[in-house]
Every structure is written in C-alpha cells, then in structure tokens.
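Sequence in, structure out. Go.
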Amino acid sequence: MPTLTFLGATGTVTGSKYLLEAGGERLMIDCGLFQGDKDLRLRNWNPLPVAPASIQWLVLTHAHLDHVGYIPRLVKDGFRGQILASSATVDLAKIVLPDSGHLQEEDAAFANKKGFSKHAPALPLYTSEEAVKSLESFRAVEGMNPQEISAHFSLRCFFAGHILGARMLEVTVRENGTSKKLLFSGDLGRFPQLIIPEPAVPEDGFDYMLLESTYGDRLHPKEDIGARLAGIVEDTASHGGTVVIPSFAVGRTQELLFLFRELIEEKKMHSLPIHVDSPMAIDVTHLYEKHAEDHSLELETLEAQGIKPFSPPNLHFDKTVDDSKQLNDAHYPMVIISASGMATGGRVLHHLERCLPDHRNTILFVGFQAAGTRGKAIQSDAEAVKMYGHDVQVRARIETIENLSAHADYGEILAWLGRFPQPPGKTFIVHGEPKASEALHQRIAQQLRWDATVPAYLQQVTL
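Output:
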C-alpha cells in the first residue's frame, strides 16, 4: 500500500518535507531547512530518516528556504533524482540556494574568527558551490495540466497565492490497481493579492489534503496597511531615525516596494531614501518583473500604463558589501529593507546591531517570526539580543505589521475550504506551531465537520 511520511513541518513552520512511497518508488514534496530553536536546527545536521539516494523525485511548492533550503544537503548526501517546480520557482531557487550556501559559509567563517562557536571549526551545512551543483537537477514544470511522472505518480499544479511561482500540488498515487489523490497546499496565500493571482480552488475531490496552519490560531488585523506603514516611517523620520525592516527577500520585499511606490505617488508619504540591502532581494525583484505568468490583473494594468510597480522614488539597490557598509555612516532618515526576514542571519544583523540601541530608530517586522529566532525575541520585548557573540541592547521602537503576511489567517483558510465542492477524505494539519495547528484542527472539525488531524514528526500513514 502507498504511504505518506511527515519528515518536517510538524509542530513547527519550518523544515517542510513529505515523502510518498508507492510501488518501490519514492517522491518527496518540498525539502526545507529547519529554523528556529536549536533542537530544530540540529535536525538539519542529522541524517535524513530515509536514504537520499532512494528518492527518485522531489517536487517543490515554492522557493522559500523552509521549503527548499535543504536541497543542496540532500544532493550532497546522495540524491540523484529530478527536482520539479514551476518555472518561476526554478529561477528563484537559482538565487536563493547559492545565497543560502554563501551565508552559511560567511556565518561559519565569522564564528571561527570571533571564536563564539562551540564547534572547532564551525562548518556550513553546505557551501555555495554545493548549492550551485544541486541546481543541475532542477526541471521546470509548465502550466496547470496533469503530468505523468511515472506509473505510480502524476502531478497537477494550482496557483497558491503565496509568492512568485508558488503552487499547490495535486499528486495522484497509484499502486495495485487503486489510486489516491492528495492535495499539498504548500503555503496558502491571502485574499486579495497585490502582485500575484489569488489561491485557486481545485474543482476535483481529494482523498487527502495537507494543509498549512501558520496562522491557524489568529486573524490578521483589518487595518489600512498603507496608512500604518506611512505613519511608522513618517514618525521615525521626524525624530531623525532609521526604519530597519527585516524582510524576506522573496515576496515581502517586492510587496513593500509596491506599497511604498503607491504611498509616495498618492502623496500619502514623503519620499525619502529607501535602501534594499540584499543582493538576493534585488535579483528576486527583477524576477518578479520577468514572470508575467504569475502577475495579477492589477500588475498587468500598471505595466500596460508604463508604470514600474516595484520602483518607488529615491530607491537604492545596495548590492555590494561596500554599498551596505556605507549605510552605517549615513545618519539621515531612511528605510533599510534587508534580509533575513526573521533576523537569523544576513546583512540585516549589521543594521540591527547599529540601530537597536538607539531609541530614535524603529525596527519594523512585516512577517511571521518563528519561535526561537532572533526576530521573535526582539518582537517579544527582549531587553537585549545576542548578536555576533555579544549582547545588543534593545532601545529602538519595535513595530509589527501583521497584515502583510503572505500566509492566510484562519478566517481566510476556512473561507477557502468552504468553497471546495466536497471535503477531502482526511485533512492533515501541518506547517504550524502546536497551538496554531491544534486551533485550526478544532475549527475545521467543528465548523466544517471534516475529518482532520495533526500529524507527528516522522509519523507514517498508509494511504
């Protein structure tokens, strides 16, 4: 009988990995890094519970690191199969994975230089070169029509509304004359969307569904995002401060640029220097302009009018290290958008180290902060956070705009599920911290009367 094994994204929003087995073949859905608490991060260093060489295919929902960041290690440890994804996801992976390897090499080198690692020497999980090598296995899956992978697996994609290239995946599993249909939601986006199409509602029924639950226990505020964003920037600038935005390079940065352009064009915010200090975010912005197949109607209309959607006035792309360092010597009001989104690494750490101790500055979080991350600690009123081996005092103003999240809240998830023509035979609640997953589980059971459950890490079910 076919089986499904949960190799990640159970009890956490990171490390998405699901394994399907049928007829002696193995297909994995997503291959993400574990992030956050130390016990989660250590899983990245443990051998995968199944031999990578025994997996024939890997199919990706989208290109965020918690869904693709383990791929170079998988290939390094023996995976020789095909990696299937949308064209935009393939292009994003070409940016995201080498950058991840580079950052890990930098962090390991810095830890060795400063001597604050418990390991001697500190090593990267994989290198940039190994990440580039893994890209040889990628193949773009075009369109939304069903595609046969083998005698045991077929694949169909739907828009997920999360980031550029994000897809829900319908996988049909066949063995011994029977078939089962599974829907993997990946990360489910919002309603409505600024840049990309809204999440699709598949018309067919499913035997099983794996449903994300990042915001399964809360609703996003119904605030005016633009007014809030403009207010924070204007108030900080009036005190001579800098707004530092730890932002995901893929998706969130592009939405911020879109909003800043709108606010300035509509004279709802003064034009001041906006720095994107992330080589990856800069490259990704160009990909957002390239992949018209993932553009919303609003974006298509703007482009037809000759408007550059991601180019607010006074925009600066700081691609080099020297560009980034020069920002440390700038003492005028500005906005710095820099990765990583949860302040776990990257250039944003240098800006936080400089700006956190000054009450005139503002640190603005615009995305989910997972438990155990530096971003979560700052957001949770920590008096100091450890950075580069020493404590940095938190005196800056700390703000959060939750409504920019690329994840649907429980109200949006339930409304989306309510449009299904029939319920899946069984729904697995994944990709959420325990409280969020259980809350969504209860709501689905009580309001929709669906058969739902929250699986455990490494749990295997027979389909």
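Check: The longest strand covers residues 167-175. The domain at 3-218+406-462 is CATH 3.60.15.10 (Metallo-beta-lactamase; Chain A).
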